[in-house]
Amino acid sequence: MKQARRRTTSSLSPPSAAREPCVVPISCPDCFGVLRFEREGPHGHLLYRCQVDHRYAPASLLDAKEAQLERSLWSAALLLKQLVYVYEDLLAEMKTAGGRRRAQIRRRINEVRKQCLAIRAMIEASHAVE
């Protein structure tokens, strides 16, 4: 078996004429291992394969990466929402704290709320190819 070669280009697109396996800068959606680009079968169908042998045709890799992106964005939105709750609880407990510290916390709450809204807008504006 030939050893995978590392591509030197910064492009994420596989070389169209490649016949040898080559490492690509994309992680496996299932195990986060390194993917490599290969051509398989007599017709040279494009295939992405990881170290533990998860295999993806381009369409299935796109579906998996789109799902991974959506999960990550929802996770970030939830984390930001939880930060707001904790900061609000902290602010409620700081009745005697200095005005400067309370102002910093209020500023951070507003900042985190805006970030959460921005991520939600990204999720709602995202339309994967079907």
Describe the structure in your own words.
It is a single chain. By secondary structure, the protein is of the alpha+beta class. The chain contains 2 helices and 5 strands, in the order βββββαα. It folds into 2 domains: 5-56, no CATH class; 61-125. The protein has helices spanning 58-93, 99-125; strands at 5-6, 22-27, 34-40, 45-50, 55-56. The chain has a 5-stranded mixed sheet with strand order 1-2-3-4-5. A hairpin with a 4-residue loop joins strand 4 and strand 5 (55-56). The chain is elongated, with a radius of gyration of 22 Å. 7% of the residues are buried.
Please indicate the count of domains: 2
Strand content: 15-25%
Counting helices, strands and paired strands, the structural category is alpha+beta
Spatial extent as radius of gyration: 22 Å
Could you tell me how far the N terminus lies from the C terminus, measured between alpha carbons in angstroms? 36 Å
Average pLDDT score: 86
Q: What general outline do the C-alpha atoms trace?
A: elongated
Instruction: Please report the total strand number as a whole number.
Output: 5
Query: Biggest sheet, in brief?
Result: 5 strands, mixed
Order of helices and strands: EEEEEHH
The number of distinct helices, counting runs of at least 4 residues, comes to: 2
Strand order of the largest sheet: 1-2-3-4-5
The share of residues in helices is 40-55%
- Which segments are poorly predicted (pLDDT under 50) over 5 or more consecutive residues? 4-9
